[in-house]
Amino acid sequence: MVLSYVGEQIGGLPLEVTGFIGRDQELRDIGELFGRGRLVSLVGPGGVGKTRLALRAARAALPDFPDRACFVELSSLRDPVLLPHTVAAALGLSEQGERDPVGLLVGYLAAKRLLLVLDTCEHLLDACAMLVDLLLRMAPGVTVLVTSRQPLDVPGEFVYPITPLPTDHEAVQLFAERAAAVVPGFAVTDANRADVTSVCRRLDGMPLAIELAVVRLRVLPLGELAARLEHRFQALTGGRRGAVPRHRTLRDAIDWSHDLCTPEERVLWRRLSVFAGDFDAEAAEIVCGGGELPAEDVLEQLIGLVDKSVVLRVESDRACYRLLDTLREYGAERLAASGEEDVYRRAHFDCFAAFAARVDRSFHSDRQAEQLTALTHRLQDFRVALEYGTGTDVPELALRGLDLAARLWTHWITSGRLREGARWLANGLAKVVHDCPERVEALHRLAWILTVLGQHAEAEPHVLESLAMAERIGDRRGAVYATEFRGCLLMLYGRLEEAHRDFDTARRGFRELGDTDGLAITCFIQTFASAHVGEVDHAWEVSGEGLRALESAPGECWSRSYCLLYRQLALWMSHDASRADERDRLGREALALKLKVDDRLGAAVALELLAWSAARSGRFERAAWLLGAADTVWVRIGGARLFNAPPLLAEHDTAATTTRTALGSAGYEDHHARGAALDLAESGAHAIQDTDMLPGPAAGAALEASTAGDAPESPDAPAAAVPRTRDRTGAARPGGLTNRERQVAALVAEGLTNREIAERLVVSKRTADAHVEHILNKLGLTSRTQITGLE
After folding, report:
1. Pick from 624, 639, 562, 569: which is nearest to 593 by CA?
2. Helices marked H in 62-118 — which ranges?
3. Residue range 518-537, pLDDT digits in tens
4. CA–CA dist 280, 302 (Å, integer)
5. What's the whole-model pTM score?
6. 3-state SS string over 31-65?
7. End-to-end distance of the chain based on CA atoms, in angstroms?
């Protein structure tokens, strides 16, 4: 079936925006197979509705999976090596640390009870089979649901063939529903039922074929549509209707849809097949315009393809489009046959290389968060472009492919896709072996990635080669960057005096070059070097220069947040109690900025520092859940906690031990588990709002003992029926609500809806919903109308 999803999800599954027809028996059968085994493969031809059925079956099974589901779309993934990276990204895992992505997946899923849906596996069959086989053996709580045109042939696999819809009933229902959307008021009646049934029968009940045909009702009466289909399919099959294979039926339907397009629409269809993911009108014009289809005519033809349901309008926060997998494959065949494939793959590469260059040049800008999100949205197309650019033997193109891999360094680091970035850089460097600025930059970018991964020995020769090459060819900018990264390695080796010399040299070089990007990055790295040994004055001096370098871009988040975060660390490691309030304020400000750019590594550090501070202030419930939240992020990114810096690891252990002693083991584990259960957005919001206790079930006897005096007066009341929080001085707050929750409660009492509250406070409705739910849980209330007189 034609699919269209909105951006929201339920239980980790995309929402549907069109109705689901029939398949009741199939859903029951698949549900039973979930009870019999842990690998179910829905197998059938393209266009038969496997994905829609898989999503509906997965949604029905969600109650059996406490850790919900994860949907992984593989249609645009070409390189099987990237399969584990793609699955890890769908699970929200980054690739920091020393573990490979397969080990990261196994480690994360080993303790989960989760349904993993792998959609469209046939072109990656061996890779999918190997990964699924490993997960089945190593993650006993994970069940895998696969859609494919052929089985994986993995032990324990239950193969369930998906056939087309019955042409006398469900196919007719599908036709009627989709036709009503095309022709308002359309309904199947006794007068037209024969024609509708004829169309469905001619199309073998294939959902995609039916949806493609229904679009023609905009220009053809139903009777003429049925007659044309009858004539076409008899001609194609020599009149032997029963001999039409399912695959041929769909191919014939697509051929027919293609023939009904205008010549210009056909040209655009085949050229659009170079896109792997969503694209907007501007990208379509840039990539697909030329020759018989000028760029200024692309938009008109794109509208025509949308009207014919060849191209889908994707519901998201930006106007974008996509080709269904089957239609993309068809277009790619036509593109190859036309002799234009290399021309438009090159145009696609040029478009995305230019996009990456624009983002890289303006990384430290007010649009940083927006641009990083845009890079993530376009990852599938960047992979296609990188495959084209780093896989070529054409010297000029190989040089640009290497440059693209290096330009995406911000994405590789902020998204946590470090191993993938290292792989593309290594591929490009293998093709470009001569001295040039592009190789200089790629070498030091690769060295940084390897350093963050903890592979310091592997990073060192790349840094040294980058520096030596830059000096040979007179690349001053490249030499300064290489010096900066050499300082970073020296810092991690514990050679701080030498590291600071390199950092000082790099700062001076960036000042002379007028490179504020490089200056800001060097400053926050050098601030960390000073901070983790408690050199407050030097950390303040260096971070101050970094912040001044960013003054022209007040909306910049990434480097600015690291400057603030490492100032907080410097205050912490100095043990200066007189500046505790300032220290915590810096931590909350840094965390807020980290969340804006989804910097999970930095967010984990911020959660850790706030947890330590809470423990030192006697706010042990807060310390425990913050430590739990930080643990979850560390696990997800796969990174070495706190860069394996001994002074920082010692502080972590002290905070955890102090908190466990104060709460007792049961109380500590309870609060820790509540924090660990939150996603980063939720834990970050609570941390920034200074929440002490998270809502949830009673903490147990150990917690009751540790919070004596905070329990309800009635001995029959549950211990956590009215939990309390503490303000920043440690005093109990009446009602147990945070300041933000009290603000929300006041707005509820005024009669505002959750959506109105979200608009008033400039937060998402989901956040407002969560606040109201937390208030009800904390106060033991059952409805919003009871939230009155809280002040």
Report:
1. 562
2. 83-90, 101-109
3. 999 999 999 999 998 999 99
4. 10
5. 0.75
6. HHHHHHCCEEEEECCCCCCHHHHHHHHHHHHHHHC
7. 54
